[in-house]
Amino acid sequence: MDRLDNTIRPYAWGSPTAIPRLLGTEPTGEPQAEMWMGAHPGAPSRTGRGTLAEVIEADPEKELGPAAVARFGPRLPFLLKLLAAGAPLSLQVHPDLAQAEEGYADEERRGIPADAPHRNYKDANHKPELVCALTEFDGLCGFRAPAEAAALLDGLGVDSLKPYVDLLHAHPEDAALREVLTAILTADREEMTRTVEEAAAACTRLGGAYAPYADIAHHYPGDPGVIAAMLLNHVRLQPGEALYLGAGVPHAYLNGLGVEIMANSDNVLRCGLTPKHVDVPELLRVVRFHAADPGVLRPEAAPDGEEVYETPIDEFRLSRYVLAETGGPRDLTRATPQILLCTAGTVRAGEHELTPGRSVFVPADEKAEVSGSGTLFRATVVV
């Protein structure tokens, strides 16, 4: 197996302290938002044999296994991350596979450069994702029931929000949510800025259920996404709890440290809380206007002490082991590729000693025996 040397991405929303604290390193004073583990071309992990992308490209069947190559092609189909949010991320959705293929082909046909700021589709893949909290972790996930969103907006006492409140009481509910989100994102920008400022002041004054939105407004003053965010469920995960985010589900991470895994894609459509491009018509084509409980996941026990976060897709499978010295070694050998990440304690994986934040890549069918005392996350695929 290969010890991974991973890139930390310094996005502006990142916490300057959470990842250094986990790694036991000194903060640089700059935000450290994400640590990438995988073979994504944007920042592939490095190994003693070259980048992980180069290692896999040299012999896909040996590294990934014949079944994974047959199912997903000659590439690692997932990207594993440590994610440390010190400020809210953009409010966003991801397309399903058919939408991604169609959108990518259309933008390629129209000759939109891959790095153009108004490009929506960087590849032809979908991007389901799962985030598991390592600390308390705040996020927004999926639409509230329209009546609940109406009550939240009405409680602010802002006159310019009354039309949205009335729309949210209309039926059917999916049409009401669509109309309100469309109205928020297409409103006159100056008028919306004033509305957001009034709403932010009310959120600060009222606190309680409004506190998350006061904080969002602090980071994104005047942004229409502040009002759009109030249409969504606010979720606070406890360590070990997780959220699965499928296609078309609007979401944003607000604060906290977690392990995130996703299909290997860059496709993001933004709704707000960002200076980046917002393509309203394409966004509305992708969003699923369905109110639902966000569905907090807790790991399910599997044989040999494995705790699995069950999801409905095959590109990734995330689980964890809470190891104790008295439990003896565990054999994690699989016929599929794996990345093992330590998040607490000290774990020995083969010849490698892993402390928090350290990880290894395990090729398909390679012996993977682990022992020690700590928490180990395991990322692989389903074939």
How does this structure look, described?
The structure is a single chain. The chain is α+β, with helices and mostly antiparallel strands. 28% of the residues lie in helices and 28% in strands. It is built from 12 helices and 21 strands. The strands form 4 sheets. Strands 1, 14, 15, 16, 17, 18, 19, 20 and 21 form a 9-stranded antiparallel beta sheet that branches.
Write the layout of secondary structure elements.
Elements: E1 2-3, E2 7-9, H1 18-23, E3 34-37, E4 46-47, E5 50-51, H2 52-58, H3 60-64, H4 66-72, E6 78-85, E7 91-93, H5 97-109, E8 129-133, E9 137-143, H6 146-154, H7 162-168, H8 173-186, H9 189-206, H10 211-219, H11 225-229, E10 232-237, E11 242-245, E12 251-263, E13 269-272, H12 280-286, E14 300-301, E15 307-309, E16 317-323, E17 330-331, E18 338-349, E19 352-354, E20 359-362, E21 369-380
Antiparallel strand pairs: 1-20, 2-3, 3-6, 4-5, 6-12, 7-13, 8-11, 8-12, 9-10, 9-12, 14-15, 15-16, 16-21, 17-21, 18-19, 18-20, 18-21
Helix pairs in contact: 6-7, 9-10
